[in-house]
Amino acid sequence: MLEHITPLILTYNEAVNIERTLERLTWAKKIIVIDSYSTDTTLEILDSYAQVQVFKREFDTHGKQWNYGLEQVKTPWVLSLDADYLVTDDLISEMAALPVDGQIDGYFVRFKYCVFGKPVRNTRILPPRQVLFQNSKAIYIDDGHTQILQLTGKSAVLSGYLYHDDRKPFSRWLWSQERYTVLEAKKILETPINELDWVDRIRRKKVLAPWMIFIYCLMIEGWIFNGWHGWYYVFHRVLAETILAIRIIEAEKLKRD
């Protein structure tokens, strides 16, 4: 099966992450990377891998960027990865044993979240993502600051894991939140409340979300048992929810004025 899979990755200034990701993809005959004109050493790193083919495209939305990438893939199966996703040995072995023309058209994979390279325990903060799928039956749809894969056909869940191991600095994280929260606030305010999931309904209340995410991550998710790695992550999540709440308040006030 592996020879029928092409990994697809989006990059923008991912020099601190991309090499570790590529080292876990040595089994792939070709890797497609859609780069949004990186200004660090990302492109130099990509050029050092013979099986990597880079396409440059100015970023507009995640959905359009991913769909452009799907158009470049020539194999029947796609492995859709962020630049900080590490494919584990167990997942590689599991993918290798899958049938090329079976009854399943897409597979969800679960995550183990890493903080400074250390996998943390007892966390469910990242839901399984459908990363392996038949190219001809999939399209990405924009959803707030991110995207949703729309797949025609049957899905299953693999037992192997992906590691989510982002090493980008805090300043880059803040830069991302600055952009993402604008889109998320717009989505939350413009979507009828009966169409929002329960998380976004809480976010629409503004004051509740930062406090609830603190309690949820620390106590229910169990991040308190991960030492300083856990506190580091919880502080990030609370800050992200706080920034989003500020964005929602700002958008509401500007609309009224």
TrEMBL record:
<keyword id="KW-0472">Membrane</keyword>
<dbReference type="InterPro" id="IPR029044">
    <property type="entry name" value="Nucleotide-diphossugar_trans"/>
</dbReference>
<feature type="domain" description="Glycosyltransferase 2-like">
    <location>
        <begin position="9"/>
        <end position="117"/>
    </location>
</feature>
<protein>
    <submittedName>
        <fullName>Glycosyl transferase</fullName>
    </submittedName>
</protein>
<dbReference type="Pfam" id="PF00535">
    <property type="entry name" value="Glycos_transf_2"/>
</dbReference>
<keyword id="KW-0812">Transmembrane</keyword>
<dbReference type="InterPro" id="IPR001173">
    <property type="entry name" value="Glyco_trans_2-like"/>
</dbReference>
<keyword id="KW-0808">Transferase</keyword>
<feature type="transmembrane region" description="Helical">
    <location>
        <begin position="207"/>
        <end position="225"/>
    </location>
</feature>
<dbReference type="GO" id="GO:0016740">
    <property type="term" value="F:transferase activity"/>
</dbReference>
<keyword id="KW-1133">Transmembrane helix</keyword>
